[in-house]
Here is the input.
Amino acid sequence: MKTSTFLAAALATLACGSAQADGATLYAEKTCLACHGKDGKKTLLPDYPKIAGQNAKYAERQMLDIKNGVRTNGNSAAMKGIMHLVSDQEIKELAVFLSKLK
Ligand code: HEC
Here is the structure.
């Protein structure tokens, strides 16, 4: 009984750990780096935003607004095409990751 409870808890921890990717992994896996650069500083096109060191709260809001179609600048469509790949929770993690880039 005790062993199975322990095993269940251990498995839950493992499953959780692998399911929750960190910001750096998300940034690479969700192809963010293709447009914003490996470090968020060198953009694919000159009118794409540099996002390294941006305020986490601001970045999160902008990503949500682009995802939900509230923000529709000339270039928003390029970014919106990717946003269906990320959940709101992942957006939060990405925003914190970006804010810590130098
Ligand atoms: C296909 C190119 C492309 C990809 C891929 C892409 N973006 Fe963007 N991103 C853009 C463009 C273009 C804008 C500016 C949109 C606008 O002008 O409204 C933008 C805007 C942003 C902004 C808001 C910047 C600001 O100063 O307001 C953030 C934050 C951001 N992207 C993060 C990400 C993250 C994180 C990913 C990966 C999940 C990602 N982007 C993937 C092109 C892209």
Summary: The helical segments are 2-19, 23-29, 32-36, 56-67, 76-83, 88-100. The chain has one domain: 2-100.
